[in-house]
Design a protein that fits this description.
The protein is α/β, with parallel strands linked by helices and 365 residues long. It has 2 domains: 158 residues, Rossmann fold (3-Layer(aba) Sandwich); 172 residues, Rossmann fold, CATH 3.40.50. Helices cover 39% and strands 15% of the residues. It is built from 16 helices and 13 strands. It starts with a helix and ends with a helix. This is Glycosyltransferase involved in cell wall biosynthesis.
Length: 365
């Protein structure tokens, strides 16, 4: 019998004995609605949504797509989403109810995501000072009340959201290893000489917290007399003061910003995260501790609920006392490197792909 006939007969026999390989089931499709497009998004969108969805897609767990809310509502987008994640105030106030109605009509679960206290009166007042207008706050309120479930970043924030939401799940922040794994450092030609530098970074909602550090860093020196200078990224619109220096980083969205920090991490000896004892701050996450640790910096933080777990993992939590803060910053600068317990914990438990992925379970079941 010719060889090609033998091979065909063998293939037919294998199909009979083994059976035709099953066709893989299609992956569930997760949609998400965030500000920005084509990878250029606000930092909160990257941290809470975009980086996680990209890892979800890379793992083969789901197909992910950024959703155009207009196309979703008018029916132009007919994608059979398993769920759509909507981040805080991305939908205009008047668009929230039509979006929720369209999702309900199609049997699509809507998951809201919030990472700040947008609900208490004191929280709203603080956000208003950071240029959150009433329509933005009303949009978030409508989304949280109408979503099938809401994902938040801390247990304290869950307590705030629970009275107005149908269901709440806590998903702690985690870092993307693709952004925060240290590599080679870049030369920093603008690095001042003859001083130690301490980093404080954050959004404009932290402007009031910055004032807690005024007396801490005024005339602060190391034990050998070397000046200790606070450097601030974001946080305030002020250009600087005699007790802190404002640092302007190159333009770019969150991934570029993170990689810039990692590449310039030798500029600083420690990182600080002050929080006033205010209702708004009690719902804040420990993200700064994670990021400082990823930069290899010891973290000095306010002794607040936000850092209760971090305190057991190597963060230095300090009460509202100037002397205690000055001593803690001096000690951190002298040490100059992150606590080994902090590094192990952040790497092993607070990194996307290694953390307990409650996030994908709440979205995809």
């Amino acid at each position: 019998m010719p060889r090609d006939l033998v091979r065909r007969a063998a293939r037919r026999l294998r199909r009979v004995v083994v059976g035709t390989p099953p066709v893989p089931a299609p992956l569930p499709i997760l949609g998400y609605v965030v500000a920005g497009a084509d990878g250029a998004h606000p930092a909160s969108a990257h941290v809470r949504v975009v980086r996680r969805t990209e890892h979800l897609a890379a793992s083969g767990t789901a197909e992910v797509r950024q959703v155009d809310p207009v196309a979703f509502v008018d029916g132009t987008d007919t994608t059979p989403y398993a769920a759509v994640l909507v981040q805080r105030d991305i939908l205009p106030r008047d668009a929230v109810q039509p979006f929720l109605a369209a999702a309900a009509a199609r049997g699509v679960r809507v998951v809201g995501e919030v990472d700040d206290d947008f609900f208490t009166e004191s929280g709203r007042q603080r956000l208003a000072r950071a240029e959150y207008d009433p329509d933005r706050l009303a949009s978030i309120d409508a989304l949280v009340r109408g979503a099938d479930t809401v994902v938040v970043s801390t247990p304290e924030l869950a307590d705030v959201v629970r009275p107005v939401a149908r269901d709440v799940t806590v998903v702690p922040n985690a870092l993307d290893p693709g952004l925060w794994t240290p590599g080679a450092t870049d030369d920093d030609d603008e690095r001042p000489e003859g001083e130690h530098r301490v980093l404080y970074m954050g959004t404009l909602t932290h402007a009031a917290d910055l004032e807690l550090l005024r007396d801490v860093f005024t005339d602060l020196t190391a034990t050998d007399g070397t000046p200790i200078r606070l450097e601030v990224i974001g946080v305030t619109d002020e250009g600087g003061a005699d007790w802190f220096r404002r640092i302007e980083v190159p333009d770019g969205h969150y991934p570029a910003f993170s990689r810039w920090l990692v590449a310039h991490r030798e500029r600083w000896r420690a990182g600080v995260a002050p929080l006033r004892d205010e209702e708004f701050n009690r719902a804040k996450s420990d993200l700064k501790f994670l990021e400082y640790t990823a930069l290899g910096l010891p973290a000095v933080v306010s002794d607040r609920p936000s850092y209760a777990v971090a305190r057991t993992r190597g963060a230095v939590a300090v009460p509202d006392d100037v002397v205690a803060w000055r001593d803690a910053v001096q000690a951190a600068v002298e040490r100059g490197t992150a606590d080994e317990r902090a590094v192990r914990w952040v790497t092993g438990e607070r990194t996307i792909g290694r953390d307990d992925d409650v996030w994908s379970r709440v979205l995809l079941g």
